[in-house]
Amino acid sequence: MSAQSVTAAEQVERLTEGCDHVETRAELQQRIASGERLTVKLGIDPTGSFLHLGHAVVLHKLQQFVEYGHRVILLIGDFTARIGDPTGRNDSRPRLTDDEIAANMRDYREQAGTVLDLERVEIAYNSTWLAALTMPELIALMAQTTVAQMLARNDFAQRYASGTPIALHEFLYPIAQAYDSVAMRAGVELGGSDQLFNLLLGREYQERSGQPRQICLTTPILEGTDGVVRMGKSRGNYIGLTETPEQQFGKLMSIPDSIVPRYALLAAFRAEREAEALAAGLRDASLHPMAEKKKLAEEIVARYHGHDAAARAREHFEATVQRGELPAKALMPKTPMEAFKTIGEALVAAGFAQSKRDAERLVAQGGVRLGDAVVKDARQPWPDEDDIVLAAGKHRFKRFVRELTSSQETS
Q1: Cβ distance 42 to 58 under 8 Å?
Q2: Does domain 3-219 have CATH number 3.40.50.620?
Q3: What single string gives the DSSP state of each residue in 114-170?
Q4: The model's pTM
Q5: Alpha helix locations (H) across 195-241?
Q6: CA 151 to chain centre
Q7: In the chain, fewer beta carbons within 10 Å around the N or the C end?
Q8: Distance between CA atoms of 74 and 32, rounded to whole angstroms?
Q9: What is the distance between the terminal CA atoms of the chain, rounded to a whole angstrom?
């Protein structure tokens, strides 16, 4: 969809839908109505090696700007990652090494491509200008922000009140992010709702630099599969963008019924009126929670893996979880058999357990099966079979074959 095919008001309506703060809507409409091709910025620090549905909320909003023909820049915070984003933290974030940053950056671009059309998105790195700042330039930037302003941020205020240490370098993070907007001459900056302070600071820095102030759009924070706290790998409540269709579908089916409408809005990107209608239907029992959750899960999985894979993931869930069946062997990818001595070793090799001790705990919980038999002991010898399925829980299966011959590949 091009910027010329819709009115400015229609474009603004779509671009701001689902946002929890816009600073300001009038400025956005005026600049779009003037025919300006906006420079739109989203900064992501490579502090981890994967992206999940929580990250996709703001990436989807960025893609909408791509579709309207604006200049969209995905800013990799390779320099600010060395400082560590203090947002939402009650302690100082560990500083990453150059090797850790480089490793994480390699994965970010590929995973962001599951949401963004990267052929129409520019990639920039903030070390380009931040590493070149001289000490006098840095002092001049810091002079534009007061300690009182910094302590007005919730995270800093809470840490200061509780006596939790705040290192001076952490104050540099919002300053550096704000300067990114000056260096890029950003017209719009996107971020999660927890980034609003930093985005607004960018507006102040641009005004003092004689630039037009950027429009700030923030998106809500998506709760994880527990329905309580924000999605994150460390909390174990995440759904990764590159997880298999079966993993994504199974995790989506585990979310509480109460947040199905929120996932419809923020993960399936349905219109607000559709999410509200879903919420109303669930409240008055005119819609069945299980049926709506399946429909939602299939819709979300299809965004990342296609409709056919999503339909197969639904069939897999219904067979394995609801009917307690093993998935059909013919539908499972084949993994070459290794020289396993025990089932515990196979669980580790399959990625179902992190260590032999972890494998023993998994077996003790009664969730491990070899073929149709429940495994009682992780030290049980690995069977002398050519083709067998190892299962851990209701969602994880691995088919091991002795060797992948040409006849097996076509079976």
Answers
A1: yes
A2: yes
A3: TTS-GGGEEEEETHHHHTT--HHHHHHHHTTS-HHHHHTSHHHHHHHHHT----HHH
A4: 0.74
A5: 196-208
A6: 29
A7: C
A8: 21
A9: 44
At 85, the pLDDT band (50, 70, 90 cuts) reads low
Q: Each residue of 21-69: pLDDT tens digit?
A: 999 999 999 999 999 999 999 998 776 667 899 999 999 999 999 999 9
> Please, which pLDDT band fits residue 318 given cuts at 50, 70 and 90?
confident
Write the class of the CATH domain 243-325. mainly alpha
Residue 107 is predicted with a pLDDT of 76
Q: At what angle do helices 168-184 and 135-142 cross, to 10 degrees?
A: 100
Give the tokens for residue 139. Answer: 């002092």
Domain with CATH 3.40.50.620 in the chain: 3-219
In this predicted structure, which of 30-39, 317-326, 362-371 has the lowest mean pLDDT? 317-326
Average pLDDT, the chain: 87
Helix locations, 34-126, DSSP H = 53-67, 80-83, 98-112
Place of tokens 């924070």: 221
Task: Kindly state the helix (H) or strand (E) to which residue 368 belongs, with its residue range.
Answer: strand 368-370
Residue at 58: amino acid letter: V
CATH of 330-409, one of 3.60.21.10, 3.50.50.60, 3.40.50.150, 3.10.290.10: 3.10.290.10
